[in-house]
Amino acid sequence: MAINRRALIAGAGAAIAPAWAPAALAQAYPARPVRLIAPILPGGVTDILARLFALRLTERMGQPVVVENKPGAGLIIGMEHVARSAPDGYTIIIASQGAMAVNASLFARLPYDTLRDFAPITQVVEFPVMLVVRPDFPAADINAFLAMARAQPGALTFGSAGIGTISHLGMELLKARGNVDLTHVAFNGEAPPLQEVIAGRVSALLATFAVGMPAVRGGQVRAIGIASRRRSALAPDIPTLAETGLADFSVTGWFGMLAPAGTPPAVVQRLHREFLAVLEEQQSRERLLALGVEPQGSESPAAFGRFIAEETARWREVVTRAGIRAG
Question: Would you indicate the residue range of the signal peptide (predicted)?
């Protein structure tokens, strides 16, 4: 039987390619600019974080990392764009827990699967939230707050930055854990409900540090406690809700980096190393803390993937119990 020499060589090359191609790709990567998608309008915390990391990765990797804003549809447009992009490491996204762990339950249908269509790279930051009230609010701690709520079911109100945001879902979790009835008042963004708390028209708000801390330091509102498992380096003087009466309660927001599913593992590992290196830089850490977020990397891409799955299951339970739907 005659053997085609060209076909034999091609076949041999194909057989050995998988053994060396990923390593060669990682060594050469990046060979051109990388796009970092921010699924939100310019100017917010997501955009600022994206640009901070883009600048540092540009300097570290020797190729431009360019931020592209693709806002709309509750973060879905930017997420779908990345899910459908080539899995080559040249399109990545910064995503919040809302985009990755909440939307799957909040929306009846998404044009992608958050657990299947993305390759986790690493978490990059977490942002603590705190329960704030007016300085003259009668409850001094979480126990007193819950006692007031139980005595007047539905009378106390809480504001939020919108349906499905951490300020909304975190309070829904507090309602369930504290066995209380609170009335939700949704706003568009976090600043309006904070102003309503200051004015006394809304009882409480689960506020991010970026928005709430200036009002706390200025005496306009009082922090009953931080919702994280541990005290925050941003405000070590403020106790957690867990240590003051609401045992095992924890709500923390986060951002992470992802690529399209199928991105070569060697490229994902390279990106993971670079992001963690940025998080170790003193200047980067100081800039992040100034934004009201805390540096927080993942041990590995796989560990970040497990974390996303756990967060998805956790918030699905909250969304389902409360009967929340977007739109």
Answer: 1-26
Query: What 3 state SS string does 137-183 have?
Result: CCCCCHHHHHHHHHHCCCCCEEEECCCCCHHHHHHHHHHHHHCCCCE
Is residue 110 within 8 Å of 84, Cβ to Cβ?
Answer: no
CA atoms within 13 A on the CB side of 222: 14
258 and 93 Cβ atoms separated by less than 8 Å: yes
One pLDDT digit (tens) per residue for the chain, 327 residues: 444 433 433 444 444 445 445 556 666 899 999 999 999 999 989 999 999 999 999 999 999 999 999 999 999 999 999 999 999 999 999 999 999 999 999 998 999 999 999 999 999 999 999 999 999 999 999 999 999 999 999 999 999 999 999 999 999 999 999 999 999 999 999 999 999 999 999 999 999 999 999 999 999 999 999 999 999 989 999 999 999 889 889 999 999 999 999 999 999 999 999 999 999 999 999 999 999 999 999 999 999 999 999 999 999 999 999 999 885
Of 67, 22, 31, 25, residue with least CA distance to 48: 67
User: What CATH number does domain 33-126+253-322 carry, 3.30.1300.30, 3.40.720.10, 3.40.50.10840, 3.40.190.150?
Assistant: 3.40.190.150
Distance from C-alpha of 71 to C-alpha of 75, rounded to nearest angstrom? 6
Whether 33-126+253-322 shares its CATH topology with 128-251 is answered yes
Contact 319, 106 (CB under 8 A): yes
Q: What is the CA radius of gyration of the chain?
A: 23
Query: DSSP label at 240?
Result: B
Residue 84 in 3-state DSSP?
A: coil
Task: Taking the CA atoms of 290, 272, 309 and 113 in sequence, report the sign of the dihedral they define.
Answer: positive
Q: Where are the domains of the chain?
A: 33-126+253-322, 128-251
Spatial contact of 139 and 148, defined as CB atoms under 8 Å apart: yes
